[in-house]
Amino acid sequence: MSNGDEIIKGRGAQLNVGNRFDAHSHELRDDFLNYCAVEGEEARASGTTLTDTFPKTIVNKVTSPDIRMGYSLNPYQGCEHGCVYCYARNSHEYWGYSAGLDFEQKILVKRNAVALLEKKLRSKSWEAEPIVLSGNTDCYQPIEKKLEITRSLLQCFLKYKHPVGIITKNALVQRDMDILKELAADNLVQVNISITSLEETTRRLLEPRTASVKKRLETVRKLSEANIPVSVMMAPIIPGINSHEILPLVKAISENGAQGVGYTMVRLNGAIGGIFTDWIKKAMPHRAEKVLHQIAECHGGNLNDSRFGRRMKGEGNIAEQVEQQFRIARKKYFKDKGIMPLNCELHREYKDGQMKLF
Predict the structure, then answer these.
(1) Which of 103, 170, 176, 201 has the smallest C-beta neighbourhood within 10 Å, fewest atoms?
(2) Are β-strands 230-237 and 106-110 bridged in parallel, bridged antiparallel, or unpaired?
(3) CA-CA distance, 288 to 34, in Å (whole number)?
(4) Cα angle 81-86-321, degrees, rounded to a multiple of 5
């Protein structure tokens, strides 16, 4: 640690940055912190709170040209996994919260998610197209174990024979293997497991409340053994932190049965730049400046990069080296592998929740 800073254990972000939409800013003053230390009180609330919400729609059209999904569905807003680099942090500001600690401590639960999905799938105007769970925040974050909203959503997709994709860092997806097997029998599901590193110490720092590396590799293997199509995303690659792991990680996931692999380069848009900078100076002070400079080198000299076509992969020497390593890794470990497109043909016959006879 540097300058006497202490890491908040179990959290990614180490502070609450200001919300760009707020008229007022908030800060923790030294005299208040000193008072709390003397009195033995916590300066910050450390627990997680849940707030029920009831949105009017649940399926979102994805218009970004460099994200390969047409529609997404997020049963939760905010994510207790606490990945410090997460691009979704900025979306928490639209709800009046901070992209920092608030993002992982104040979770919004969409209680009517299943009813809204069913309404969408039964709509006469809806034509089947894959809907991805977790386009923004993880549908298998810790609270899902209790609430089971994601499980109910999968049951809805199965009832209407509708294609669904899943993106997650949590081994909790194994709980729903029974439903996933039924979906996979009709080629209606693909699971994408995010694995950022093979090193557990790195995982604990970057993604404090996610499943361990061992559990994620086990999840890939078990899904594959159950004939459920599974891919892995190495997302994001952070120069100086996990960029040296490309070949061994791709080898490991191939050996565990993954049928596809992809990657993105880290980009620190909006409030995330400040959150990540604060975190790395506390968590990895000896290499903070080197990592920040290398990230900036991948994005035209900035931590922030919103340019379509380049923001996901970066540019410059470091980004080119990463791309070349992935090309080699795919050729070596995924030469004869691939995943079929999801089946969009069955849903029309099941729009009423049962197959039509005529």
Answers:
(1) 201
(2) unpaired
(3) 28
(4) 120
Average pLDDT over residues 280-309: 92
pLDDT per position as a tens digit, 72-129? 999 999 999 999 999 999 999 988 899 989 999 999 999 999 999 999 999 999 999 9
Where are the alpha helices (H) located in the chain, listed in sequence order?
30-39, 101-105, 113-122, 144-147, 149-159, 177-185, 200-206, 213-225, 246-255, 272-283, 288-297, 317-333
pLDDT classification of 5: cutoffs 50, 70, 90: low
Burial letters 51-63, b for 16+ CB under 10 A, else e: eeeeeeebbeeee
Local structure of 37: helix, strand or coil: helix
- Using the CB atoms, write b or e for 147-186: b if 16+ within 10 Å: eebbbbbbbbbbebbbbbbbbbbbbbbbbbeebbeebbee
Q: What distance in Å separates the CA atoms of residue 358 and residue 355, rounded to the nearest whole number?
A: 9
pTM comes to 0.88
Grouping H, G, I as helix, E, B as strand and the rest as coil, residue 317 is: helix
Q: Is the pLDDT of residue 199 over 90?
A: yes
Q: All domains of the chain, ordered by start, with CATH?
A: 30-246 (3.20.20)
Tokens of 219: 């999840």
The answer to whether residues 221 and 174 touch, using CB atoms and an 8 Å cutoff, is no
| Eight-state DSSP code of residue 126 | -
- In terms of Cβ atoms closer than 10 Å to its own Cβ (0-12, 13-18, 19+), residue 221 is middle
Over residues 210-218, mean pLDDT: 97
Q: Tokens 């991805």 label which residue?
A: 132
Phi, psi at residue 130, to the nearest 5°?
-50, 130
Which residue matches tokens 């061992």?
214
- Residue 65: pLDDT band with limits 50, 70, 90: confident
Tell me if 82 sits within 8 A of 138, measured CB to CB.
Answer: no
